[in-house]
Amino acid sequence: LLLAAATLPPPQGEVAMTGQTVRLVQPNAPQQQKWDPAYMPVFFQRQVDYTAAAPRPDLVVWPEAALPNRLNITGDPLQIIADAAAGAEVVLGLLRPGTEGYYNSLVRLDGTGAVAGIYDKHHLVPFGEYIPYANLFSRIGLSAIANAVPGGMTAGPGPQLMPFGALGTAVPLICYEAVFAQDVAGAPGRGSFLLQITNDAWFGTWSGPYQHLAQARMRAVEQGLPMIRVANTGISAMIDPHGRIIAELPLGEAGYADAPLPAALPPTFYAKTGDFPVFLLTLALVFGLWRYSAARNREISD
C-alpha cells in the first residue's frame, strides 16, 4: 500500500473556497511564562488586540488554554473578547472546572460573547493530564504516583460535531487528538472542516511542533476536509483538504493570519471505510501464514 501510494501523482488544481475568512491567532506564550500571573494579562491582551484588528473576519480562533482560569484583569474576559471581535464568532481554549478536576475545553462564543458551544477533550495525555490506574496506585499504597498530576483533567464524552452557521460544521480537536485517526473518524457524522487548537510550547523549537503539524495534515487528507489549526507558539495553519498549507504562522512568532476557508471534498475512501480494509488485509495475512505453516508441517510429517 505504501509503495502504491508513493506512485500516485500529487493532487492537481485549485480547491474551491467557501467565501468565509478565518483569523488564526498565535500569542506565542512560552511555557515557562504562560501560567505566570505576571504574564497572563500580557498574552491575553495580545490576543485581544489581534482579534480587534481590521478587517473583521467571520471567525477568530485562539489556541488551547488561551484563557487561563487565574487571569487577573478588570472586567469580564468573555465580554472583552466579544467587544474586540465586533460581531465575529470566536473559538478559544480554556480550562473549566469539572466533577473530578478540570476539563480541557474548546469553547465557541457567538457574536455577542455568549457561550454557544463547548467541546471537552476526551483523549487525555497519560501522565500529563491524568495518571492511568490512579485508583489502583492509591489502593496499593502508592498515592504519591496517583497524585502526580494535581487536580488532573476529566475526560469529555467523546468526538462530536460543532455547528458554526455559514461556515458549516466542525469536528473539534484539542492538541494531540489530531494525531489519532479514530478521534477524527469517530465523530457522529461528517463535518465541513476540522478544527484543532493546541499548545505545542512544551516542545520548544525542537521537532515536535513540525511533526504535530505533519500529522494534522494527514488527518485532512484522510477525510478530504480542510483543517483550521491554531497553536500557541506555532505552527498555526490553514490546511486544504489535500493537505496543502495555504496560510501559516511560523514557529516561535506572535501574530495573526487571515485565511480563506477551503471547501470540503467528497468523502474519501478512508472516510467511508476507516481502518476496516486494513483489518481485512491483516486477517488475510494471518490466514495465509496459517495455511502456509500447516502445509509446511504436512510436508515435514510426510
UniProtKB/TrEMBL annotation:
SUPFAM superfamilies reported for this sequence: Carbon-nitrogen hydrolase
GO cellular component: plasma membrane
CDD domains tied to this protein: ALP_N-acyl_transferase
Top-rank lineage group of the source organism: Bacteria
Gene Ontology process terms (BP): lipoprotein biosynthetic process
Pfam family, one: CN_hydrolase
Annotated compartments: Cell membrane
GO molecular function, one term: N-acyltransferase activity
UniProt KW keywords: Acyltransferase, Cell membrane, Lipoprotein, Membrane, Transferase, Transmembrane, Transmembrane helix
Protein's name in the database: Apolipoprotein N-acyltransferase
Organism: Pseudooceanicola lipolyticus
Name of encoding gene: lnt
